[in-house]
Amino acid sequence: MLGDCLENVRKNGPLVHNITNYVTVNDVANVLLACGGSPIMSDEPDDVEDITTICGGLNINIGTLNKSSIEGMFRAGRKANELGHTLLLDPVGAGASKLRTDTAVRLMDELKFTCIRGNISEIKTLALGSGTTKGVDADVADAVTEETLDSAVRFVKDFARKADAVVAITGAIDLVSDGDKCFVIRNGRPEMGRITGTGCQLSALTTAFLVANPDNRVEAAAAAVCTMGLAGEIGWSRMQEGDGNSTYRNRIIDAIYNMDKETLDKGAKYEIR
Amino acid sequence: MLGDCLENVRKNGPLVHNITNYVTVNDVANVLLACGGSPIMSDEPDDVEDITTICGGLNINIGTLNKSSIEGMFRAGRKANELGHTLLLDPVGAGASKLRTDTAVRLMDELKFTCIRGNISEIKTLALGSGTTKGVDADVADAVTEETLDSAVRFVKDFARKADAVVAITGAIDLVSDGDKCFVIRNGRPEMGRITGTGCQLSALTTAFLVANPDNRVEAAAAAVCTMGLAGEIGWSRMQEGDGNSTYRNRIIDAIYNMDKETLDKGAKYEIR
Amino acid sequence: MLGDCLENVRKNGPLVHNITNYVTVNDVANVLLACGGSPIMSDEPDDVEDITTICGGLNINIGTLNKSSIEGMFRAGRKANELGHTLLLDPVGAGASKLRTDTAVRLMDELKFTCIRGNISEIKTLALGSGTTKGVDADVADAVTEETLDSAVRFVKDFARKADAVVAITGAIDLVSDGDKCFVIRNGRPEMGRITGTGCQLSALTTAFLVANPDNRVEAAAAAVCTMGLAGEIGWSRMQEGDGNSTYRNRIIDAIYNMDKETLDKGAKYEIR
Fold this sequence. Notes:
The structure is a homotrimer of 273-residue chains.
Chain A: H1 2-12, E1 15-19, H2 25-35, E2 38-41, H3 45-53, E3 57-61, H4 67-82, E4 86-90, H5 98-110, E5 115-118, H6 120-129, H7 149-163, E6 166-169, E7 174-177, E8 182-185, H8 198-212, H9 217-237, H10 245-258, H11 261-267, E9 270-272
Parallel strand pairs in A: 1-2, 1-3, 3-4, 4-5, 5-6
Antiparallel strand pairs in A: 6-7, 7-8, 8-9
């Protein structure tokens, strides 16, 4: 099932428009190419509408937002909505500054997202702040662990339903829900947190998976999350004496490049709640 | 011959000013260092004139253009022209958005480029749009293959003559012409298309080769194109089980770092038409 | 001693705010993660004060400065000063353009830096230009070698005293002084100059070391410089036939990831003058 989602990405070759931060943008581009998609980056307000028009999906990441790129996010997002394109939000640092929180909340309020992907703290910030998700009980712990799992699953389902979007909360355990079912995913390695940008890469990957699997959105997002986590495991297994986080970064992207349906179906570790 | 062009880069150590996109800029910097040059990046309009003055060449890449960097491109370009410096245009995405097409065409009309490097679709967009290249017959296929080669060679020669520049069209087969002769180059690997930024890297490399070989421009550009393609072949030959596009990126830059005159002269695959 | 400084970084896990250039920013982020710290990047003036407030230190690098990020540097810097945070300046390209020189000098005049790190030519530019360092005798050679060492040591001590900061001048021989003592460091490899961004990485690393060792500033900065240089030596020892500067970049960051107290204490090559 999840393997089919990957295969559809390879067949469909989705073109993904990214308005993303300049820290991890190169890895984001390479991860899209690794999974079989293609990247375009553009954040200039006068450029983004044309660019998003020729793409299948738009990945908005607020990691190094500025006044100009924020305008670009809204203009591109509205055009993507108008065209019925896949639209994903990665609210990097929501909760860490007023500008980030306000921007993420305004994006949620003015645009219709297909998917939102962040860590639990960013998603809680959105749940508390956004008009479209008011009434979500965000009284949940700041880490998803076996102990906090039940309440986190309730939270992600509730938030996904109110936001009318697929929501992916990633961390030690990853949750992906469309409000109805919730994938609880246990792929990945803790060492992935020692590489910059695995979250940004996953957001781009998820956008590509959603574009290529329009009729199975929650499965598509779950497949992207499992692909990234499994690539983290495979990449780690290829590490040699003396290797560190820079080589690990390369090995993870390499593992996505080499991932196939069978490997993903065999390696994906998830349950549905 | 081409090997001498590389050797001149190593001896001359050209300093290249890059106004380039933030996606592939790190690889652009490392590829310049790999070939024996040095990179400086600056796109702030109030900074670019001083910076380009101390450099030997300027590489303008519109991959993530914005209003401020566009102004920077014109100010730097005018200064480079004034000083007689090598000036290269990489019209990334010309044809994909109005802003990119208009900017590339305006750059062509207002500045005198030493070299223009892009894929066939970008170059066709310029040929159709620019006043300085009006009258170029751009009725050529969107890919350079053995079947379309004759018409593509006619097109690149015609465009180079009208633009009064060396033109490099890169793809499965690469063409480099000054309007008189045309190098038809068959180096490279299709897997290079699965890495972000090999085109951007080539533009920077070409700028360095042109700076170091002012009297042999078409040979210098052809040498840069062969160096990149051959590095793609050498890099691929060093790939191991499990390696993917991220590692391939490193191996290509590594191969440029280790390229010498003899390797290039032996490995360059080209004919002159 | 220096190994303890590294150990404190691993224990303390400092969060470092970086206003840095887009060329080397990904490596800067990975090097901070490699040493045990965490990176945040933000240059939007309306965002930087909130972001720097939650961090332990701020690393200002003017490598691709623009009008907006310059405003961000001042707003973030003033907030960092107000909060008593570690504040580091990397005056990339000071002396190469009027805007860079003026910006670096103004930053020096309006902010109180904990540390300034650059090459000898950048630091000389600051010494000549800044009101807070007027009277520093900058009549010193443009490279720190065994021959020019005595005058360079006098210069760095004098500049550090006038600037009331730890000053790190890096090159073939590295000098780190607080105005009183001066560490003369002989770690590193010349091939590090063939990689983009080892200086930027070192500035970020130094910021993390200073945050984690507030009571031993000159030792902390010296420890960061030794860590980077030693990582360059270890990374080089792991290079294989065919490897070049792109792989070397990865191996250096990997070596920082794997560096421990014992390795650093054993490998650090310095004398105190």
